[in-house]
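Subject: Sanity check before I submit

Could someone independently write out the C-alpha cells for this chain? I want to compare against mine line by line before I put it in a report. The sequence has 182 residues.
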Amino acid sequence: MTPTHLPGRPAIPTLPAVLGAFNSAPVEEVHKLLLDCLRSHRWADRVSVHRPYPDLASLLAASDEAAYDLSPGDLAEALAAESLPTLPDGAYSAAHMAMSAAHAAYESKFGHAFVICLDGVPPSEALDHVLEGIRSRLANDPEDERVVAAEELRRLARERLRDLLSGAGSGATSPHAPAPGR
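---
Independent answer below. Compare away.
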C-alpha cells in the first residue's frame, strides 16, 4: 500500500505500509526496534522471527504470547531496563519528592523499578495513578508482585509497539523517545 498523499502535504505512510516495512525489515533492525518496546532479547527474538504479520492485531497477539512466556531471567532483564514513569510537565516539587520516596521504597522491597502501564489514563491523573499503584503494590509479596510486574510489562510492550507502528509515519512517536507509560 502506498502512503496517503494529498497535494501540498507530506506523504504519511498508512499503518499497512508501516507494518509491511516492519515485516520486511532486516531482523537486526526489527530486533532493535522491539527492544525499545520491551528490553527482553527473548521477547524481541520471538516477535521478530514470527514475521510477517498480516495485521496489527496479529502482531499484538504475538507480542502478548511472547510476553506471557518470559522466564524469571527474561523478566529480570526487562525490569532492569525500566525506569520510573515521568511526571507530567508542571508537576510541583512535592510530587517529585513523593514519587521518589515511593519508588525508593518499592525498589528497596522488590529490587527493580516500578512499572505500570498508563494506557488510557488521562495525563492529569497519571501522577495519582502511579502513586496509588506504588503504594498498593508495596503490600504485595515478591512473588505476587513479580506476576503483577510481568503483566504491566506485557501491557507496556503492547502499547509501545502499537505507538511505534502507528506513530512511525506521523512523527507522533519516536522509538528513541521515552516510551509512554514509563
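---
OP: Matches mine. For the report I'm noting this point. The two ends are 33 Å apart (CA to CA).
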